[in-house]
């Protein structure tokens, strides 16, 4: 039984290492967009690390407000050095380097556990 479990853990670790090598990351946003299953802070997001954004992309970004950062937002306009993002009702202008990457998927409810742990 332990050998079988060790095999599955090894496969899971290999998948995580390969995903990390291709720029896939996991994070817990503290605020931002909501979906039908809840708010951004009640889930975790899987995103691809990127610095090339277009209008309409959903991104994870660091804002000037540390209490609500990182935030899950939509890109509303793109300049060479800045992005205008919308996270819910509020819009904010951030440096392009403050954006972590493009959203792949949001996994609901796991963020609640991450909040309890302190992530």
Task: Explain how this protein is built.
The chain is α+β, with helices and mostly antiparallel strands and 119 residues long. It has one domain: Umud Fragment, subunit A. It contains two helices and eight strands, in the order H-E-E-E-E-E-E-E-E-H. The chain has helices spanning 2-21, 110-117; strands at residues 24-27, 31-32, 43-49, 58-61, 71-78, 82-87, 90-95, 99-108. Strands 1, 2, 3, 4, 5, 6, 7 and 8 form an eight-stranded mixed β-sheet that branches. The longest helix is centred in the N-terminal third of the chain and has 20 residues, at 2-21. The model has no long low-confidence stretch (mean pLDDT 84).
- The ordered H/E elements are HEEEEEEEEH
Helix content: 10-25%
Number of strands: 8
Runs in which pLDDT lies below 50 for 5 or more consecutive residues are none
Number of helices: 2
For the terminal residues, how far apart are their CA atoms?
A: 32 Å
CATH class type: Mainly Beta
Quick structural overview:
The chain is built from 2 helices and 8 strands. The protein has 119 residues and is α+β, with helices and mostly antiparallel strands.
List keywords for this structure.
Umud Fragment, subunit A, 24% helix, 119 residues, 8-stranded mixed sheet, alpha+beta
Summarize the SSE layout with pairings:
Elements: H1 2-21, E1 24-27, E2 31-32, E3 43-49, E4 58-61, E5 71-78, E6 82-87, E7 90-95, E8 99-108, H2 110-117
Parallel strand pairs: 2-5
Antiparallel strand pairs: 1-3, 3-8, 4-5, 4-8, 5-6, 6-7
